[in-house]
Please model this.
Amino acid sequence: MDYDSVDAESFGRSLQGIGLNMLVRDVRTEVAFLETVFGMKSHQVSQDFAIMVYGDQVFQLHADGTYSKNPLLSLLPENPPRGAGVEIRLYDTDPDDAVARAKDIGATILQEPSDKPHGLREAYILCSDGYAWVPSRPKP
Model:
């Protein structure tokens, strides 16, 4: 699928399995964070929407205003963090590299890279909306 030219209806009909749709205050800011820190690819970026690709996974960013008729919008806090209790795990991203890039842009490092008993080396990085991104790799 060509994510740069697909129309909304065709894109929506193509979605399968579990989907991730994140509400953010500023789509372009979140896109820049995800591209810089995790090397993701973005498509159809506007002030309201973006399609994000990580490996073979696709998810969406929507600006708050696009949810004006959606009941979820009334549950969002006025101030971050928004993503309390949710970890967005990126199993194909080196945590040491991601933390270095995140520090370069002033992102919040909630936890430095460390080896965990469940066999992964991981870190916790917060984006400006307060979502916890967890780059992870199997321990050497």
